[in-house]
Each structure stands twice: as C-alpha cells, then as structure tokens.
Design brief:
8 strands, membrane, six-stranded mixed sheet, cell membrane, OB fold (Dihydrolipoamide Acetyltransferase, E2P), two-stranded antiparallel sheet, 11% strand, transmembrane helix, 415 residues, 2 domains, ComEC_N, alpha+beta
Amino acid sequence: MYMIILNKKQLESINLKFILLLFMIFCISLSIEYTKYQELVYEEVYETKVEVINIYKKEKYDVLKLKSKNFDFFTSFPKSHDIKKRDLLNIAIITEKIDFIKYLKGFYTNTIYFDKLTKKTSFKDKIIEKIRANHQNTQISEVFEALFLAIPLSTQTREVFTNYGISHLVALSGFHLAVLSFLIYWIFYFPYSFFHTRYFPYRNKKYDLLLIALVFLFSYLLLTNVVASLLRAFVMLYLGIYLLRSKIKLITFTNLFFAFLIIISIFPKFIFSLSLWFSMFGVFYIFLFIKYFKDLKSKVLQLLFFNFWIYFAMNPIVHYFFETTTYEQLYSPFMTIVFTFFYPLELFAHIFSFAHIFDKYLLSFLSYEFYTFEVGITFELFIIFVLLSFSSIFNKKAFILLNVFIVLYNIYLFL
C-alpha cells in the first residue's frame, strides 16, 4: 500500500481545481433554482401543494410557514381556520413583487384560496405518534419532535430555549449526529463482525461500519427535510471519513471552508440560512479553541473551559441577530454538558416508552418565568469581532485581542 505525499504546490492546485468544480456546481444549482423561480412568477397566481411547517400566532391572525416541493414561503391565515403543523394544503398564492432573492430567502405573500388535503400516514408521522404517546403535555412532545425530527418549535417554546441560551441544543447539528452515528455503529458492530470474520476479513471493518452509519444518517437527513445545520454536520462527517481514509489531517479551517462551499454549491438557498451560519461559526470557534487550548493538562478543566469559552465567543454573533438576554443564559455551558447525557437517555427512553417519567421535571423547566432585557451589538463592532476571529487563525496576537473583546462584551452583556 502506497501513500502519496503531496507538496504545497500540488495541494494548492488540487484545492483550486476543487473550488472551480464547486463553482460550476453552484452555477448549475443556481440556474435550476432560477428556472423554478421563473415557473413560480410566470403568472400572477400560482397553485401548489404545501406542508405547514410552522404556525406563528399573532393577535388577529396566524402567520404560516409553508413548504412546497421547490420553495418555502410565509402567508397569513385567519384564526378561524383549523390549521395545524404538518397539515397538507392545496393553495393558490399571488406571485407579483417576488424577486429572485426573496424567492431564495423565503418570501411572504397573500393567499387567494386553499383546500385542506387528506394526508397519507408516513414513516415520519409514525415516529411523531410514538413521541406523543410518551407524553401527555403537548409542549413537551413538541420539544422532542424538534430534538428528534427537526420539526420547528412554536414561538412560545422557542423563546424558552432562547431565554436559557440553549437554542443550539434543539437545532439538530453535530452532537446529535455524533450520538446517532455512535448508536448505529454499535448496533451493526457484532452482526457485521460475524460476516466480516468469515467472508471478507481483508476489508477494513471500522471503515465499512462508518459507511453503513453514513447511509443511515443520510436517510435521517432526508427524513428531517435537510435541515441546514444537520447538513453541515453530515457533510463534515463525510469529509472526515474520507480524509481519515486518506490520512489527511481532519481538524482544519480549510476543511470547514470546503464543507461550506459544498453545501452552498448544492443548496444555494442556504446562504441565507441563519441556522447554517450559526452552525458554521460554532464549529469555527471549536476549531479555534482546539488550536490554542488543546494542551490543557486537566481534561475536566478543559471540558468546563471549552463549554464556557465557546458560549462566550458565540455571544457577539448571536446577539447581533437576537438581542434577548437573561441572566439564566449564564447557565448555558452547564446545560450543554448535562445535555450530553440527557439526549441519548431520552432517545433510549422514547424507543422503550418510558420517557414520561421525566416529564414533571421538563414541565418545570419549560414553565420557568424569566426577566428579559435587550442587549445587542453594533454592526461596526460585529465586523471587528468577525475580522479578529478570522485573523486568529494565523496570528496569536489577534487571538489575544479576540479574547479581550469576548471578555469585555460579555461583561457589557450581563452587567
């Protein structure tokens, strides 16, 4: 077996060719999206089938987020209509004043009429029924539908997680994918070992099991309707397996950058996804932490410091978009550590139908009353923070300045 060693120029040439390939894919993907957009706006009224993704309750009406085969959009419905999440509708909408950027971002438009359609029970619906059978409280069921299937939370429930500073825990991403890949790996480990030993011992068993896990995780990605943050985690897992096989360093900012380019080249719409950007920044600061703090001797101290540093580093990014602040958000690093055990436990509990025993504690958690206040960050300071963050990849002095910024901003945020 030979391992090819590439010099710097050869590696740069490969990277450039790969970027050009991704740019070509991006252009093709964008042209496909533009064709779909032209089909949408060809006439002033467009009729399509949609699924209700989320309902945002207002005082006099409800705003619905709807998903068609080709695009997502928002519209208003009177409260008199009995519409629920995951309902299937046939709907006619007005398409004037929808430009291509609005189409990619997810536009708002008015509805002319709609019909409620009968929906066939899918595999996803059966999982939802299983989740709901474990709980009597609908809000708790809603939390686990989000945790396991990426079904969006209602405004009220989402605000609870925002106030705790743990919205990242209910947004399916790398940690959730890691737990699922670990479970799939060990479920297939012993059956596969039996056949591996007898019929093809020459194969790399660990690599084969990772590929099996990847197939199941891809199916799970499709089951969740390709959530941006989960897609980022899946692409990085795929790259990680490939790079591990090729004996190339896994944790590099270049690999993160390529993961982003792959996602955007295939799904141009995701360039407007906050979920993707938060997920990318989260991994970026994890890599930055590893670069500068990987040599901490105490693993316990490293774990605690890791969770606190990542949380405080993300605050300027998060608070540029969402200004809601509570003192309870300071518990976020501890809750993140607890979630490491909570998520697989609840996954196991739902499979074997004893998840209800934790409901009284979750209900208390969800019904907690917060004192909230608004603290943001100016656009100029936000740009300085981002530039310092990127400069820290190459310069330790920039990293020191970044940490000064983090400390000062979080003091300003909570004092």
